[in-house]
Design goal:
Blueprint lengths: L1 H35 L3 H20 L3 H16 L2 H36 L4 H13 L2 H17 L4 H21 L7 H29 L13 H33 L1 E2 L6 E4 L2 E4 L2 E2 L2 H36 L3 H28 L1 H8 L7 H15 L2 H16 L4 H25 L1 H27 L4 H28 L7 H25 L3 H11 L4
Helix pairs in contact: 1-7, 1-10, 1-19, 2-5, 2-6, 2-8, 2-9, 2-10, 3-4, 3-6, 3-9, 3-10, 4-5, 4-6, 5-8, 6-7, 6-8, 7-8, 9-15, 10-11, 10-13, 10-14, 10-16, 11-13, 11-14, 11-17, 11-19, 12-13, 12-18, 13-16, 14-16, 15-16, 17-18
């Protein structure tokens, strides 16, 4: 029980820091929506920012962290700090060399492509922005490496605070740098790209003192034959392939959103094999996907990812000790708590999607049409919030057992499913189809992975998970009804800030009170766990 409280307290630390980061992230998105709206400039920026993030997932917090934490934890448990610190030095050196070479190659490519191929304005803007944002890969991947080390040592505070630096730099860039970059949005957007690069440097800088305090002072090491390195890279390769599939899928959403969008003032149709086909999307599709995803990521990041981050080292420790009884118990507890939060979050986002967008985004360049399109995207994304949250925990359970191949196989299958759904649904639901494809793929992935893990470990307590989830669904249904009735009794939006505030937060408060009251009456164990392990001070 004490260990359960320990990882839940760790989740609390990560959640609170992530909450601060998400609040600042929301503030930056509110500001950027006001400045750039759903313009072509923001569409191009979304692509230019997602590509460095793809490599961050591959070589940073995704593949490297998932492969590094179990091996590093095992070294700490069985070989001692000296060998573990040497492993850190070798991996850090390799990471720097690989990323540095990749950045040089990318920068050369971005400068050559426009001279070799004939590209239109929107793709030229994407390439120019990428030349600024791509070096961010080096800094953010080294940050992710530092975070993996500290999380393995059960230190969660500074890694969780690191993203705050990026958001502060981003916001400062909007106000301080955009006036220096000309009068058009296509020029002002470069200020944001530069601010992101500065944010990467600062995020890395604030990790270093904590590492030093833990006794880790980086010293370049060329001992690439280190046995730990071989094990980590053996684990990384399938994760990279799996994450590459998933991240390329995410990136393809944005590419499809731009490629299938009618250019401003351009032709209504595009041609394939001499056939004129109407564009299914409008300019701004990539932007509304970004804004919708950011609001959906708020509850996911604050709790879903925080729980997965906090529980991963405990999974790894149990796996290293071959303690499958406690491993299963920890897994069941984490899943039940994640669903307890994720299901009502899905319901709440669906119900409050329009008031959310109206309050936070709708002003200046962000029009009523932008609000409608973004709210539609949120509706479809929100259908999968519970699945996004659960998938982070389940995948880390596989990684902690050093089984990286199973999530890869399942993820690769989801790539095909998602792409087929994308190219099918955009003709009926526009950009909402891209969001729905993501939600469906995530749901199918969770169900398959859970079934495989249950069979692999012969997990007991599945009935308990089912009972807990049923109680959560009942409480969420009661919440849904009271929230909907409350919204019907409130005044219709008139554009005033106070009215927007009331239309969002009054139903939200009623929904939260209703859900937790219903959960209390249903004697939900997850509510008790959250209270005793997170809210109640340790006696």
């Amino acid at each position: 029980m004490e260990e359960k409280k320990s990882f839940l307290r760790s989740a609390k630390t990560v959640s609170l820091c992530t909450l601060l980061s998400r609040v600042l992230g929301l503030a930056r998105d509110v500001i950027c929506a006001s400045f750039f709206g759903t313009s072509l400039a923001w569409d191009a920026f979304v692509i230019a920012f997602k590509i460095p993030n793809l490599f961050r997932r591959l070589f940073g917090e995704g593949a490297l962290s998932a492969a590094f934490i179990p091996v590093f934890t095992e070294y700490l448990e069985t070989k001692g700090k000296k060998d573990a610190w040497e492993l850190v030095n070798v991996i850090g050196t390799l990471l720097f060399i690989i990323l540095g070479g990749m950045i040089i190659l990318a920068e050369v490519s971005f400068s050559i492509i426009p001279t070799v191929f004939s590209i239109n304005q929107k793709w030229e803007l994407v390439l120019n922005l990428l030349m600024v944002t791509f070096p961010y890969v080096l800094f953010i991947c080294m940050v992710a490496f530092a975070m993996a080390i500290l999380n393995s040592l059960k230190h969660f505070l500074m890694p969780a605070l690191a993203p705050v630096a990026l958001n502060i730099c981003w916001i400062a860039g909007v106000f301080l740098l955009t006036p220096m970059f000309g009068g058009t949005l296509d020029k002002k957007i470069f200020a944001i790209a530069i601010a992101i690069l500065i944010g990467g440097v600062i995020q890395l800088a604030i990790q270093l003192p904590v590492l030093k305090n833990k006794g880790i002072i980086y010293k370049p090491s060329l001992n690439f034959s280190h046995p730990g390195v071989k094990r980590i890279f053996a684990l990384m390769l399938p994760i990279i392939f799996g994450l590459a599939a998933v991240q390329i899928n995410v990136l393809m959403d944005s590419f499809i959103a731009i490629a299938f969008a009618r250019p401003p003032g351009g032709a209504e149709d595009f041609f394939i094999a001499g056939m004129a086909i109407p564009y299914p999307l409008e300019t701004g599709a990539a932007s509304v996907l970004y804004y919708g995803d950011r609001l959906v990521q708020f509850p996911l990041g604050v709790f879903g990812i925080a729980m997965a981050t906090a529980v991963f080292p405990f999974f790894s420790t149990h796996a290293a000790r071959k303690d499958w009884t406690n491993f299963t118990e920890t897994f069941n507890q984490a899943i039940r708590v994640v669903l307890f939060i994720g299901i009502p979050a899905s319901v709440g986002l669906i119900l409050l999607r329009t008031p959310l967008v109206e309050l936070f985004y709708e002003r200046n360049a962000f029009t009523a049409e932008s609000t409608y399109r973004t709210a539609t995207v949120i509706f479809f994304y929100a259908l999968g919030v519970w699945a996004y949250s659960a998938s982070h925990v389940i995948i880390r359970a596989f990684y902690s057992m050093q089984d990286t191949l199973t999530p890869v196989k399942v993820g690769a299958g989801m790539v095909g499913l998602n792409l087929i759904l994308n190219l099918t649904l955009i003709w009926f639901l526009r950009e909402g189809g891209l969001a729905l494809a993501t939600a469906i793929s995530a749901t199918v992935q969770v169900m398959i992975l859970f079934a495989i893990l249950q069979r692999k470990l012969n997990i007991t307590g599945v009935r308990h998970i089912f009972t807990s989830t049923l109680k959560t669904l009942i409480a969420a249904f009661v919440m849904c009804v009271t929230c909907w009735l409350t919204m019907k009794m409130l005044p219709i939006g008139n554009g005033e800030l106070m009215t927007k505030f009331i239309r969002l937060f009054v139903p939200l408060v009623v929904a939260l009170i209703t859900f937790f009251t219903a959960s209390l009456l249903l004697k939900s164990e997850e509510l008790k766990y959250l209270y005793t392990a997170i809210l109640k001070r340790k006696q």
